Amino acid sequence: MNITNPKIERYVMKALPPRDKVLREMEQYARKHAFPIIGPMVGRFLSQLALITGAKRILELGSGYGYSAYWFAGGMKKGGKIICTDLSEENRARAIEFFKRGGFGPMLEYHVGDALEIAEQLKGPFDIILNDIDKIDYPRALETAIPRLRKGGIFVTDNVLWSGRIFHKKKTAESKAILEFNRRLFSSKKIFSSILPVRDGLAIAVKAD
Ligand SMILES: C[S@@+](CC[C@H](N)C(=O)[O-])C[C@H]1O[C@@H](n2cnc3c(N)ncnc32)[C@H](O)[C@@H]1O
To answer: Ligand 1: residues within 6 Å at CB?
Structure first.
């Protein structure tokens, strides 16, 4: 199921300004290896969020080889830190290389292991937290992330419409987890949330006072 009308998607993708060499290579890598990245439409939005909030510390849960993190870095001032997490050592090595080549090397801190366990050990607060781990863990990710955000900080979650699979009659464990996550997103008094039907559905939650 297309979340966005394909005509509109094509128009916006074409209208986007060209990306730098490193981002283009990262996108090429995703195409070649069928690696799920947030893509340039959402990527620009992440840069904007970093700019709008003046983010100095960003945490990512599920960073892959650093594509989404690279967009965040582009919206942060030098001296900012982006803390990445992923299960894969190879993804870490690739991210370090891409960041170095893009001139963002000193901004990157990358931990390998379970994102939620790592997050529990990290000292907050963070200005922005991105959640893009295995969907089954989304409800737990919300509970882990919110206490680690500063007041007014932003919790971003990808794939909350799951290509429309959440509407299937027979729901997978992932679909059920996403639906539970979305329910908590709007029932929690600690955050003020919305779902943007962009790409695969992007949830934005602001930590309330
Ligand atoms: C969709 S990809 C992330 C893409 C990245 N955010 C981007 O757009 O460039 C999801 C990544 O999360 C990692 N992952 C999934 N579950 C995880 C967990 N519990 N802890 C850490 N990493 C996890 C996977 O290894 C994979 O690289």
So the answer is: 36-38, 62-64, 67-68, 85-88, 91, 114-115, 132-134, 137
Is the pTM higher than 0.85? The answer reads yes
For domain 6-207, which architecture applies? 3-Layer(aba) Sandwich (3.40)
Does residue 36 have a cis bond before it (omega within 30 degrees)? no
> Could you report the per-residue pLDDT of 95-107, keeping only the tens digit for each?
999 999 999 999 9
User: Does residue 62 come out as left (phi exceeding 0), alpha (psi in the -120 to 50 range) or beta?
Assistant: left
Domain borders along the chain are: 6-207
Pair of tokens at residue 160: 């909350």
- One DSSP character per residue, 9-37 reads HHHHHHHSPPPPHHHHHHHHHHHHHT---
> Distance between CA 85 and CA 185 in Å, rounded?
22
